[in-house]
Amino acid sequence: MTQAVGRARAHTNIALIKYWGKRDKDLFLPMNSSLSLTLDAFYTDTKVVFDDNLTEDRFSLNGKLQSEKEISKISRFLDLFREYKDESRFARVESLNFVPTAAGLASSASAFAALALATATALELELSPEELSTFARRGSGSSTRSLFGGFVEWDKGTCSADSMARPVDDASWDIGMIILAVNTGQKKIASRVGMEHTVATSSFYQAWVDTAAEDLENIKKAIALRDFETLGKITEHNGMKMHATTLSANPPFTYFSAKSLEAQEAVRTIREELGISAYMTMDAGPNVKVLCRQSDMERLVRALQDYLPAEKIIPSLPGKDAFVLTEEEWQASLATFTGEPR
Ligand code: ADP
Ligand code: DP6
């Protein structure tokens, strides 16, 4: 019996300049480059075992065996590595999401970054993290960015080999993010489906692509200058522009719920009336993410609790690069997993 084992942890990331739309669906090549902040609070741990006794791939998530559909997604992803390394063994994949799954909190980002690193470790691939991000991309676009900590750019590139993520800044300054988890149930319209429909039908879509490039250049300058106000303003504007493309799709749709609007209103009110600098963004789900200064976080959490007493409010610091786990660390992770991400 031969086995090859790899284990890894990757954190989720929240885009400040969104990836929204593909120019090549099969290769996951995006229409626009994007930039994110990796979060310390949410992550995925994954173990992969290639084993010549297996007659098919297996996949369990949070201790539950997954459907054929989910397994075939994993198999297609593993095939990229098997082809690259001329590997014929099937694999057993076990994964733990310390983040709600499919709720717009980027579980697919941490998931495929962790799976990519665990697989590359098992198969002893000699790839830089940037090169590995081109593999992660084929599982879910946003996962390219989860191989790195801090602020990360995903360059749309010219082809599959150079559409990769790169670290921009480690965010070891006065930066944090607060998640307003208004609903952690599974979303109705997956990001993949929502973006495809938008590219195909929104009359605002070209404006999105044109202005995203400018937003990216400006936000990188703001990061280099550690200019929080400009960073926040660009983040909020870019997120709202992405959501405007869903409202202008045909038929239109939205990821905003009544609770998202309430949360948005709370952020605006706190900013205007209490003078705490905080800027919001949203993804393909109803939850609101608030970019803030780490030094304002405690005060901001208290204010948000006053305005939104019923909501789960989760503060997070910037997260680190994805890393390889030892068997002991994996076992510790299994032992602490409750099935109820924080
Ligand atoms: P999210 O906002 O959580 O990223 P998506 O709909 O984009 O939502 O992605 C969720 C999908 O990602 C899940 O339905 C599943 O197919 C896949 N996924 C989530 N977590 C894992 C994991 N740990 N390992 C493998 N695939 C995962
Ligand atoms: C709104 O990366 O989940 O969160 O590549 O089809 O798997 P696929 O989509 P995914 O989309 C993320 C969309 C977003 C913005 C972002 O994270 O950049």
Automatic annotation (TrEMBL):
EC number in record: 4.1.1.33
Molecular function GO terms recorded: diphosphomevalonate decarboxylase activity
The enzyme's first-digit EC class, named in words, is lyase
Statement: the UniProt record of this protein carries the keyword Transcription regulation: no
Q: Which UniProt keywords apply?
A: ATP-binding, Lipid biosynthesis, Lipid metabolism, Lyase, Nucleotide-binding
Question: What are the Diphosphomevalonate decarboxylase-like N-terminal domain coordinates in residue numbering?
Answer: 10-165
Specify the Mvd1 C-terminal domain's residue ranges: 177-316
Q: Which family does it belong to?
A: Belongs to the diphosphomevalonate decarboxylase family.
Q: Which NCBIfam families match?
A: mevDPdecarb
Name of the protein this chain belongs to = diphosphomevalonate decarboxylase
Q: Native species of this protein?
A: Streptococcus gallinaceus
